[in-house]
Amino acid sequence: MRVLLVDDQALFREALGTLLDVREEIEVVGEAGDGDEALRRSAALSPDVVLMDLHMPVLDGIAATRRLRAEQPAVRVLALTTFDDDEDVFAALRAGAVGYLLKDVASDRLVEALLAAARGESVLQPSVAAKVVARFAQLADTAPAPRPQPLVVPLTERELEVLRLLATGRSNREIAAALFLAAGTVKNHVTNVLAKLGARDRTQAALRARELDLLGLPRE
């Protein structure tokens, strides 16, 4: 998997590149120090995933993500930043980022997120996933809608357990550890959950689950 690193701190880019270069499944093909340079480097290098900081000079990461998705739609953008305030989170997701992680993320989790992003899957830090679900609940409460239709094929108890953990932003490996299952088994359950919910990715599955009251969350 080809990755482009975008961050205005050269030392952080160097450290991150060193960390990722030791992984056989990842090739760091280049770096950029601002969003404008990121667009040029991405066009020249054709990465699979751009690991994008948000607060940068010249062109910030959110504007760069929006232009990158418009100009190079095959490239996935994964936000990696210091802050998880609501404004940054929803601006990045609206711009087209497939995921949002904080810079204190564990290295294994970062690698999993990059691989998932390359597959087109959504990847959210648990705190960010909670914000997305909460925002959706707010929007749902301000505009009453007809009751969603029940699932044609109900989820099994195990699939519900997987869904509730998935909605907190946990990776397949973390779900497997929590439920004492093999990673392959969890992957199969996630595939079934997405299919039954009619969701294209994990974020949409979490939102759909909230609509159907499958997460066990209190309603106001």
From TrEMBL:
Keyword list, A-Z: DNA-binding, Phosphoprotein, Transcription, Transcription regulation
Annotated HTH luxR-type domain residues: 148-213
Alphabetical list of InterPro entries matching this protein: CheY-like_superfamily, NreC/VraR/RcsB-like_REC, Sig_transdc_resp-reg_receiver, Tscrpt_reg_LuxR_C, WalR-like
List of residues that carry 4-aspartylphosphate: D53
PROSITE patterns the record matches: HTH_LUXR_1, HTH_LUXR_2, RESPONSE_REGULATORY
Domain annotation Response regulatory: ranges: 2-118
Any one GO biological process: phosphorelay signal transduction system
Any one GO molecular-function label of the UniProt entry: DNA binding
Coiled coil: none
Domain of life of the native organism: Bacteria
Keyword Transcription regulation tagged: yes
DNA-binding among keywords: yes
Gene3D superfamilies: 3.40.50.2300
Protein name listed in UniProt: Response regulator transcription factor
